[in-house]
Sequence to fold (174 residues):
Amino acid sequence: MKVHTSTLNAYLYLGQYDRFIASLPSENPVAFDLFYRGFGEYYRGDWAAAARDFDRAYEMEPSLLQARIGEALSEGIRHQEAQGIALLHETERKIEERGVRDPEASYKIAQAYAMLGDKTSALRVLERSVNNGFFPYPYLASDPLLEKLRREGAFSEILKKARVRHEQFRQTYF
Fold:
């Protein structure tokens, strides 16, 4: 199994953060691996380790989408939310310019916006992510990184759309 597949994220999406981190390469990690290690640590609440890995990933490859998301989260850990949000806005603009259509990566941008307190952007990107094909309803419904959005009416509507698409997918393929 390649580390750059969504399959590996199953541990993450199941909330098995220790197993997720243990499944990542530990020797000579690339920026992508460091982002995901930091992301697992972020979920566990190990802010120092998350910031260390996010910052290292960004230093190694600042143009990598995931490294930019991690650096935005790292800014939040340092209580520099406005800088993190600015980095996410710039990243989102570059994605649009380049026509990138990775709905799972977009979801991570939505998570970062939510954690940094930009609910409007988080909901906009979350809806785009679901519309473009990332709709694992059980994960979306329980993801702790989206907690700040749960009381928003738009979140409920996006979640309903994800549930419908998730159920249609299950009926078609399982």
